[in-house]
Amino acid sequence: MVVKNYKKNYEKDINMIEESTLSNRKSNKGKIAQLLPYLVLIIVIALIPLFTHSSYYLHILILTLIYIIVSVSFRFIAISGQFPLAHIVFMGIGGYTSGVLAIQLKWSPWLTMPLGALLAMAIGILIGFPFARLRALYYALVSFFFGVGMIQVITAFGRYTGGIGGLVGIPGIPGLISTNKVPYYYFILGVTIVCLLILYRFEHSRIGTNLKAIDQSHLVASSIGINEARYRVLALAIGCFFAGLAGAIYAHYNYVISPASFQMSQTLWIVMYVLIGGLGSFAGPIVGTIVLFLVPEFYSSLRTVVPFISAALMLAVVFLIPDGIVSLPGLLKLRLEAIRKRKREL
Amino acid sequence: MLFEINKLSKHFSGLVAVDQLSMFVNEGEIMGLIGPNGAGKSTVFNLITGVLQPTEGTVKYNGKDITGKGPHIIAELGIGRTFQMNPLFPDFTVLENVVASFQCRPKSSLFDIFFNTTTYRHNEASILKQSIEILQLVGLYKVKDELAKNQPHGYQKMLGMARALAVKPKLLLLDEPLSGMNPEEIEFAMTAIRKTRDQGVTIILVEHNMRVLELCDRVVVISFGKKIAEGLPQEVRDNEEVIRAYFGGHGSA
User: Fold this and answer.
1) How many domains in chain B?
2) Could you give the ipTM of this predicted complex?
3) Which B residues, 35 through 74, put their C-beta within 8 Å of a C-beta on chain A?
4) Domain housing B39
5) pTM value?
């Protein structure tokens, strides 16, 4: 009887697959219903400037969006099992490239920003090949010192980069300059949404599957024909591109960047956002950035204690919610169900 | 001759793990590579599949020299393998494990994946269908949506084989496919191996369990990295040197 059932399900599955390949339209209705909460969320976020004229609040929100791009792109690399502790430096590479080009050659930021992202990606690819042989602690250490070195390089070219004092006088993005930050806010919100959509699609395609497969067992992954080095470099390239883009936008938004903005400790904060938010889920780094960056910025009295709170949160995550804050609702639901069940039994 | 290795050796800084090993496999055969623990059987597999680089010797497949090629290239050429330990992706479901293992046939280019072209969607749909068919073949369809790491050992082994079949191999290397299985699972696995061969897949299997002899057309026995016997299962079973290698002593057992 049981066997018969399996067989029935099996045939049903096969039929379903055949149908869904024939017409993709059928499932569209369900998809829209699924997307609805996200659309509402985006509209709410887009309406914020109507309610506040405080440029300080907008400034914090813009920085949060930029850091969301950086932390989500960091997680994209991390799903392949690589933890590059130099991620913030790629943001710096993007920012400095775009800024220097715009100042020295007077090119439009609309052109220099993609170039900054592309250079960050190119450097990511270059270091990707030697890095593809490293694992775990060795990877972390080598990438960390690569980052430290890169900052030194940027500082050393002081004639162009302004050295320790930083690069000043970076032009704003034409068309967005205004007395308030609203145009920038919408532009960066749009870029963030597009970046997240692209990264989400990559993760839920075969690329993401292969990266996760490599993370779980590189031996098995290569035995089925996954070119491990190629995919690890690909992950790094994509992640660095978006970090570079975020950095370039930051440079033209802030008009000033300095090596201090891309300190190595900043990288560790990005790692914190990802781990506390939840490494296993796409929403993890977004939630992590909001909890650890946005919230403390709003309550400025909190700022000095943030490192302690973060450390405590980290411990809490390790012991209580290993899948990060995003898994909390699911965990609570399970708990509640268990309690209800016990009550019913009584 | 589908596959041949010639005077293959592997030294680990002084230790000789595989010593001048030569053997061949004909198309459609099930060949057994047996030997006591630590004889170097798994090392031979790792040398064939490019996980390890041989110190000397050559590996030929379909008439081509494939010595020292990387593991993913070996897979693309049509040599699938299973592993003795950790044969799967623990955090994927059973179905995802098999779906992820379709890398070469059909193969989507990065361009197709990036832009979600019809080719890519078509490939993925056909992969999903074939994965379900493979799971049906190895009897894991009923647990397809459960996490691989939560499966009992026997299921994990079968899943390892399902994964290797997704490579659509011409030559399949099975590393101790029966170890840790209970008698019923062994029967099931042996049937599945025979069925696979009947579909035209050539198989080399490594075992230290002599039970596996009944599956094989031909057997090579190695001990301390050296070939000590070769022939039909019956001949090998009665070979004095083989008995000595397995039971120690002076062959009077």
Assistant:
1) 2
2) 0.83
3) 49, 51, 70-72
4) 1-78+169-253
5) 0.85
